[in-house]
From TrEMBL:
<comment type="pathway">
    <text>Protein modification; protein glycosylation.</text>
</comment>
<feature type="domain" description="Glycosyltransferase 2-like">
    <location>
        <begin position="7"/>
        <end position="174"/>
    </location>
</feature>
<protein>
    <recommendedName>
        <fullName>dolichyl-phosphate beta-glucosyltransferase</fullName>
        <ecNumber>2.4.1.117</ecNumber>
    </recommendedName>
</protein>
<keyword id="KW-1133">Transmembrane helix</keyword>
<keyword id="KW-0808">Transferase</keyword>
<comment type="similarity">
    <text>Belongs to the glycosyltransferase 2 family.</text>
</comment>
<keyword id="KW-0472">Membrane</keyword>
<keyword id="KW-0812">Transmembrane</keyword>
<keyword id="KW-0328">Glycosyltransferase</keyword>
<dbReference type="InterPro" id="IPR029044">
    <property type="entry name" value="Nucleotide-diphossugar_trans"/>
</dbReference>
<dbReference type="Pfam" id="PF00535">
    <property type="entry name" value="Glycos_transf_2"/>
</dbReference>
<dbReference type="InterPro" id="IPR035518">
    <property type="entry name" value="DPG_synthase"/>
</dbReference>
<keyword id="KW-0256">Endoplasmic reticulum</keyword>
<dbReference type="GO" id="GO:0006487">
    <property type="term" value="P:protein N-linked glycosylation"/>
</dbReference>
<dbReference type="InterPro" id="IPR001173">
    <property type="entry name" value="Glyco_trans_2-like"/>
</dbReference>
<dbReference type="GO" id="GO:0004581">
    <property type="term" value="F:dolichyl-phosphate beta-glucosyltransferase activity"/>
</dbReference>
<keyword id="KW-0735">Signal-anchor</keyword>
Amino acid sequence: MRRPELSVIIPVFNEENRVDRGLSKVLEYLERQPFSWELLVVDDGSSDQTVSAVQKILKVRKNMMLIENPHLGKGGAIKKGILSSTGQWVIFLDVDLATPIEELGKFMRLRKGFDILIGSRKMKGAKILIHQPRFREFGGKVFTLLTNILVTRGISDITCGFKLYRTELAQKLFRQSLLMDWSFDAEILFLAQKGRARIREVPVVWQDNPNTKVSLLKDTLTSFIGLVRIRFNDLLGKYHLP
């Protein structure tokens, strides 16, 4: 079969209440596009009816695949999707569509000459429809600051869940990744900058979802530990980029 131009990866974990709505919106958008595509839904070991809900959609939709993964964390689910993708480009996004799928058109237009396009909620031109609570926004700013001190350079939004990669590069980077939790983004971008990838940040439309599964205290602490681990892994020579 002809290689699709784009692979779309959506990780899900216990999303029975919103997976149908999110996937339907994504599919309706993709089916109107001129480029070829595939949609990979990666279940991260859900314990509710998420898998059943996705299987129902599979029966009536084309170009879509469900990958069932053991529970490893968001990074682990995305890694599985990246390594399973066949498109020339690959994007991952969240099923709650905090960044609307319509932003994909902007990314596809701007990709020429770059290896990675990162959605940013924090640069000029971004539009926040619904803000996070202030304490959560502050926590995000602190994490971004720490990330740019410890592992990356000059990236305004590390954790926005809307990123487009050249597939060959993405697969090289994710094969090297060791972190499966929320700090996976920082690790991948560290490796990308280490390998001199051409990265562009793109302002996006975004809105907070009050039903987010992110625990501010727990996940902030875990992510900070992850930043330290990235540095130690690098010092110990555990990353082997070609």
